[in-house]
Amino acid sequence: MDADEAGIDESAPVVSRHSVTVAASADTVWRILTDIDTWTTWLPEIPYARIETPGPLASGSVFRWSAAGMEIESTFVQVWPQERLVWRGYGGGPDGVLGVHVWALTPAGDGVEVSTEESFAGPPVDADPATFQAGLDTTLAMWLRRLKTTAEAATAS
């Protein structure tokens, strides 16, 4: 990772990494990932997601969403179009779960390799890291499957 790249907290009690090859362009995958307001259409476990900052997505843009029963406010810390997207935010407020999430897109043949990694820290995670680890592993793998299906369907149509 370059010195100017933001990343997950490698020392957090919970870290998860997953990847998948998607038969779609980086542009298609990027458009799906960054259209926060439509996450609920392809991620049904997210009942609410809305970008709060007007204008183009950029470092400092804020979005609010809910997942796993938590209300989350996240801020983008890195936006490299069609390459890398990093956000961090708290679920359940500043004494809740601090998540740092990275999406990376790398050309792969006729498609793109999509990698995602996330770290969880905070008092709730410290109290039950095994449950948070299992939940995060399941969630990230599911999100990648759904992203692959959504992007490949968009490419086929």
TrEMBL record:
It comes from the Bacteria. Pfam families: Polyketide_cyc2 (PF10604). This is SRPBCC family protein.
